[in-house]
């Protein structure tokens, strides 16, 4: 899991940030990105793609990563901006914000996916990076837990949608709630949620 980090260090870079986001697919809420700089030669066999971990395991690793990391940066783009610029641009913008919020500047970026970001820092996009790079996997955990906590807070404001359970994703329960109550303030209007599409076939 540290092969990319070692290869980049052999090129002379020392402050390598892994970057990932959470929240591209949901019908509601923000997209959140994290940028993580880990200590040189950092290893932890428990760290992997956040989607392969239970919620309780992610919480445990969230605390461990935040304690061990050289620096952690978080970037968030709200639903209203997603509606304005589209989800891909919003996800990349969240990543840019996460890198900018690092207390220790990064000199190289490892980014999950196929897209790089508009910052003047050497960078590499890695398909399935959250399964191939410990830095990116760490970022995926931080981004996921951070976003889940935000959706838990929204649950308290909009209890009828039960955001605590599905975190804004288009589950049967969530679609049924939209059909019953309509869209609330944090729903992404640009996702064209049609009432005729809300009943699972």
Low-confidence stretches: none
> What is the CATH class designation?
Alpha Beta
* Overall domain count: 1
- The secondary structure category is alpha/beta
Distance between the termini: 40 Å
- Strand proportion, as a percent range, falls in 5-15%
Amount of helix? 40-55%
| The CATH homology group name | Ribonuclease H-like superfamily/Ribonuclease H
Determine Rg (CA atoms, Å). Answer: 17 Å
**Could you tell me the mean pLDDT?**
95
Describe the global form.
globular
Order of helices and strands: HEEHEHHEEHHH
At the third CATH level, what is the topology name? Nucleotidyltransferase, domain 5
Number of helices: 7
As laid out across the biggest beta sheet, the strand order is: 3-2-1-4-5
Find the count of extended strands (DSSP E, 2+ residues).
5
The CATH architecture category equals 2-Layer Sandwich
